[in-house]
């Protein structure tokens, strides 16, 4: 049996390419247009973020500057309600009643007023020392001075240096 061989002179050329015109733009142009659209989007995104941050900053500063006004309005409303309650209580009960019907439990501002009346050399200092003694529970020279009713600051008993003043004469914190 003879072997199957190509014809002499070879086979005819096979047309594997379609000879039709190209449609549209070259791919590089599509990439360029897409890059331009994406760049435009990123540009607006960054500017939008900056504007959002600026609006947030403006809102925060507006809040900071309006807070005292709003707090004052709230305080006025609370005071109005408090005095209206006192007036209503006085109208219903015929007199103003104390919370515990005694002078043992008094409000903070009454302590300040009493300390100012009882002390000629500065009631708030005496009041601060009293509060320090009550809250800290320290029973040193400060509490002894407060219990004795003395409100001088600087030297303790018998001319010794106070705990609030160090050896160089500089005032520290209590």
TrEMBL record:
For this UniProt record, the keywords arranged alphabetically read as follows:
Electron transport, Membrane, Mitochondrion, Mitochondrion inner membrane, Respiratory chain, Transmembrane, Transmembrane helix, Transport
Residue numbers spanned by region Disordered: 149-174
Specify whether Transport is a keyword of the entry: yes
Q: Which organism is it from?
A: Cyphellophora europaea (strain CBS 101466) (Phialophora europaea)
List all membrane-crossing ranges.
27-45
* Biased composition annotated in UniProt, kind: Basic and acidic residues: 165-174
Q: Where is this chain primarily localised? A: mitochondrion
The protein in question is named: NADH dehydrogenase [ubiquinone] 1 alpha subcomplex subunit 13
Q: Where in the cell is it found?
A: Mitochondrion inner membrane
Organism domain of life: Eukaryota
Q: How does it sit in the membrane?
A: Single-pass membrane protein
Write down a Pfam family by its short name: GRIM-19
Question: Taxonomic classification, please?
Answer: Eukaryota, Fungi, Dikarya, Ascomycota, Pezizomycotina
- Primary role: Complex I functions in the transfer of electrons from NADH to the respiratory chain. Accessory subunit of the mitochondrial membrane respiratory chain NADH dehydrogenase (Complex I), that is believed not to be involved in catalysis.
Q: What family does the Swiss-Prot or TrEMBL record give for this protein?
A: Belongs to the complex I NDUFA13 subunit family.
Tell me if Transport is a UniProt keyword of this record.
yes
| Record-level GO cellular component terms | mitochondrial inner membrane; respiratory chain complex I
* Alphabetized InterPro entries for the sequence: GRIM-19
